[in-house]
Structures are given as structure tokens and as C-alpha cells.
Write a structure and sequence with these properties.
Elements lengths: L1 H20 L7 E3 L10 E5 L8 E9 L5 E9 L7
Parallel strand pairs: 1-4
Antiparallel strand pairs: 2-3, 3-4
Length: 84
């Protein structure tokens, strides 16, 4: 009887610790459209812009003023264009 209580307590503790170690679900990707209102309090990361001469998608991960994370996909001009 004592042994089963100990095993249950141990299993509960390991489950609780494991649940804390699992990161929160990834936020879904939002697609920017001209005129969208963005609540950006802190930029966490941005994707690299490729060295091509065309419009390409880029992503920015940011936190809003409530501390919630968002992933925004938007279009940028690649870095491969030259004027010469």
C-alpha cells in the first residue's frame, strides 16, 4: 500500500515536471496585408532575406503588449538586386 502511494506520487511529480518542460504550442502564422494593425512590443526574431532579385516571403516572430507570441509572414524584396 505504501509502495503504490509512492509510485503514484512519483509518477505525478514526473508528469508535472514533464508538462512544464514542454514548450507552449507554436503560434499559427499570420499573413500580413496592407493596413493590418500590428501590436508589436518586442521583436524576437526575423528570417534572413535571401540574395535574390525578386519579392520573397519573410517571417517575424514578436510579442504583443500582452506578452503573447505571434509569427507574421510578409513580403520583402530580396537582397540580390543591383543598380549597375
Amino acid at each position: 500500500m505504501n509502495r503504490s502511494r509512492t509510485l503514484i506520487l512519483l509518477a505525478s511529480t514526473l508528469f508535472a515536471l514533464g508538462a512544464q518542460a514542454v514548450p507552449a504550442h507554436s503560434p499559427s502564422v499570420e499573413h500580413y496585408q496592407y493596413g493590418n494593425h500590428l501590436d508589436i512590443a518586442k521583436v524576437i526574431k526575423t528570417s534572413a532575406v535571401p540574395n535574390v532579385c525578386q519579392v520573397v516571403p519573410a517571417k517575424m516572430t514578436y510579442e504583443d503588449h500582452k506578452g503573447e507570441q505571434h509569427v507574421l509572414e510578409y513580403l520583402v524584396m530580396g537582397n540580390g538586386c543591383s543598380n549597375g
